[in-house]
Amino acid sequence: MANNGPFGPVVNGTQIVFYExxxxxxxxxxxxxxxxxxxxGHLVYLFLLRAWFFVPFxxxxxxxxxxxxxxxxxxxxxxxxxxxxxxxxxxxxxxPFLAASIYMTLGRITTALxxxxxxxxxxxxxxxxxxxxxxxxxxxxxxxxxxPVSGDPSSVKKxxxxxxxxxxxxxxxxxxxxxxxxxxxxxxxxxPSPLFSRTSSVNWENHFKAIGxxxxxxxxRSVVRxxxxxxxxxxxxxxxxxxxxxxxxxxxxxxxAVFLLIHPGRLVRDAGRAKSHERDSQSHVRLQSWQV
Length: 292
What we know:
By secondary structure, the chain is mainly α. It has nine helices and four strands; from the N terminus they run ββββααααααααα.
């Protein structure tokens, strides 16, 4: 089979274009391995730190693994719909799953630091609002990615519109989220809890910096993906495979790597220990006073 695209099945005399090029199998396999290692690492932390709010993060990692497996498969059979659907759906659905855990992280950290009163929105509502938006984005990615496979021009157009709407919504949510995170960070810095100010094990500033960094990375990915779908079939971004690896695969792996190094579950655990130690110390002081 020729190496030059476009590739895709011919339906009723019309070619449905899956790829403008033959997907690069070695690079796809490399990212399957990288995401598998990162996902296993997060699975270990999930149980070690009891960080159950990272379950969506694990699901996002699995989407990335099987998504790039689909691209590796497509390299051999670029006209088959199965591997194309697999990679198209999962690589669009993976980032919103990762984002869901990022959203929940801010709420968990704010609560762990006793800073609920410093947040623009109550952390419980903050998490619920963003996760609901994220669920909508996930469904839009699924629907938008599946519709073009039918080959019907109107379905292709509707699918692109749904995808763009989902990506723009995610972009807006991420932009407001990074502002919310910055606001809480500066409020805590101005009015820190005395307990955590004197507890060196709770390095909360690094965790807020990590949230800000990964959110910016997610925004960059959403912008590039939005441009890809706005340009449409035959556009510059979708016609050059390097964009999906530099602005999607590499960026999503970077997010997973950052949270392996600075896992928010550690802060939640250390903050809980510091609070427990403080309560024990206060109880001991009261007991001594009563004995005297």
